[in-house]
Amino acid sequence: MFSKINAQKERAVWSKEKANEWYSKQGWIRGCNFIPSTAINQLEMWQQETFDPTTIDRELGYAAGIGLNAMRVFLHHLAWEIDPDGFKQRVNEYLAIADKHHIKTIFVFFDDCWDANYAAGKQRDPKPGVHNSGWVQDPGKLLSDIDPEAIVTLEKYVKDILTTFKNDKRILLWDVYNEPGNSNYKSKSLPLLAKVFSWGRQINPDQPLSSGVWAPDLTELNTFQLKNSDVITYHNYSDEKEHAMVIDSLKKYGRPMICTEYMARTRGSRFANIMPLLKQNNVGAINWGFVSGKTNTIYAWDTPMPDGSEPKVWFHDIFRKDGTPYSEDEIKLIKSLTGKK
């Protein structure tokens, strides 16, 4: 199914010693999954016509102001495919803005969440009150309509980005595949997951490679992800008791841990009970959502509000577009944990 083009020797998965040495130099990692409030999805963020450095700069300034030092940012192969050089220039511009605010970046290559269909050009408008109504998968439908030419494109994409930025100190980590197996793909995502790890190890960037475990029942995928990740990443949207159990279960691998998704207020995952737990265990803390915008992630996954009114309790997100916080108490807590005065 998969091509062998440009096959190169693969480096080994980092040793536990190397992974822990790398982690010891980072300080406590804390931040958000970031997309500017003016973008509904990854394509709107990265396409030339809608790339918005002004908003990115302003909103990353909000992050710096509360002591955050890392952002997790989703890429999309189609934005690269239609304009490889321009795409890389925009990635570099984003990194320059983030670096100005002393923020490192976790980049995500592939993603099995939300809409399997996508197209270049103008993106849809948000559906009022619907969580992530315009977010798109990558490669999405290509997983079911796979062909050798598509895989060649995906391989060129991953290797081009990694080769360009493999020594870039502004990048913290490469998250090679977000929630593989979601959207009921299950183990159908394993061949591409295996390939992207292989492509990454062939390029051998300075930064670690990882893919976060997220669903306990996806045993085959979990086993592969944990075996092939240089540092362990995971997602958890439960309360502090269940989250603590997950941390304890992953400690046995002896590798650094970063929680790359948490914080869903109405599900019991909040800054007040989870962020201190993560800091206490020296686990990186990357919550979902930052500035309320076109992704509509103030609304819960399964509780749409078609009239578009503001929910009493935001599901995700920290700030409004003008920089005022959803909760002053949360901001005080975050700043106390990050040491920001």
From TrEMBL:
SUPFAM superfamilies, A to Z: (Trans)glycosidases
MF terms (GO), sorted A to Z: hydrolase activity, acting on glycosyl bonds
GO biological process: xylan catabolic process
Domain of life (superkingdom): Bacteria
Keyword set, alphabetical order: Carbohydrate metabolism, Glycosidase, Hydrolase, Polysaccharide degradation, Xylan degradation
Listed name of the protein: 1,4-beta-xylanase
